[in-house]
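Supplementary Note 2. Why include the ligand at all?

Several targets in our set were suspected to adopt different conformations when bound, so apo predictions alone were not considered sufficient. For every target with a known small-molecule partner we therefore ran a joint prediction. The input for (R)-mevalonate is given below.
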Amino acid sequence: MNTLTPSSRIGGFHKLAVAQRIERVAQFAGLSAEDQAQLAQTGNLPAETADHMIENFVGTMNIPMGVATNLRIDGRDRLVPMATEESSVVAAVCNAARQSYDAGGFVTSMSGTQMIAQIQLTGVSDPQHARVRILERLDDIRAMCDACDPVLVKLGGGFRDLEVRVLDTRGGAMVITHLIVDTRDAMGANAVNTMAEKLAPHIAQWTSGTTNLRILSNLADRRLARARCVWPLDAIGGAAVRDAMLSAYHFADADPYRAATHNKGIMNGVSAVVLATGNDTRAVEAGAHAYAARGGRYASLTAWETTARGDLAGTIELPMAVGLVGGATKVHPTARLGLKILGVSSAEELARIIAAVGLAQNFSALKALATTGIQKGHMALHAQNIAMMAGAVGGEIDRLTQVLVAKGLVRMDVAEAELALLRQA
Ligand code: MEV
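The joint prediction is reproduced in token form.
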């Protein structure tokens, strides 16, 4: 045993006051007084609030929130808050939206606000019989689920449908029950998980099997957000640009290696809005990637075509489990502000806007990649980060950024040397 390594076994860490926790971490990691002061600075999320959001809270991780401009969605102009650490993500949405604004912008729709909860049943020798026995209980199941959440039912949501599948697995046949629940303006995880847990013992009893997992599915394919948009040929720079962008899409749709990056770009936009509104980025990301693989091969979340007039038409469709109530959407003061800036009054409205942002993001990435390449725009913004990392402050940041971009050398060693020269001058 290395006696120099401090122990991570800290009993009762969660019971300590925040300042004491910071002190313990400082002892463990050798943090300076300045480091500790940095941790204690929680910005626009009060420590008392944050301390109730997660366990063992010691600090916040602020990332920039920008606002995407130029978006016209379903005939209404929107400013869309985006929280991201990646330079160029907000600019990409603004650019794509500007190029479609005069032609009318984005049109969006949604398949519904239904979530799926799964109940896993094992140990039945007659899975087909068990499946039908569960289906026969539709009315009982509906009543039990709705009784779990009378408020949701009052708001027009509640149990909607029942699906039961027999699944062939490495561990033998399983009977998987899907509770399909309209969760309205809630993301719905709590609502459907409660229903699944309530129902599971009954399913076990009706079938003489054993229930195991009771949890929502993040493949929320009954909650699909869709957006479409036409970019006029003139606005994007002509047929050669359009065809190069189409070819880039064809590549992504045919090749999972490219599709992963193509969809990552889409999620740059999607996750930034999901985060700025206090929603669950991982839930939306898991749903998106699972949906992208629904055909048995991972493919593009967007589709790109040429209209009869020769313009470029883009479409996106992806699961979008976001809510306006519950979780960080209500607790985090900046998330509440994000929703206020957006001016949305339903989870559906939010989901549709996010789909439009995902499509806009993909447009800009394809256009940049198919024309000048991604590095030109990226580097201009990246240069600012390098300038700050090299120690530039105040007006030096812009001056040094310009020098780095002009030289075409966005590197730390160059930044340090150029900063020294600027300071001498
Ligand atoms: C970078 O974060 C995102 C892109 O790689 C997306 C793409 O390649 O389509 C530019």
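Residues 347-370 form the longest helix (24 residues). The pocket of (R)-mevalonate is lined by residues 86, 261-262, 264-265, 268, 365, 369, 374 (CB under 6 Å). Comparable summaries for the other entries are listed in the accompanying table.
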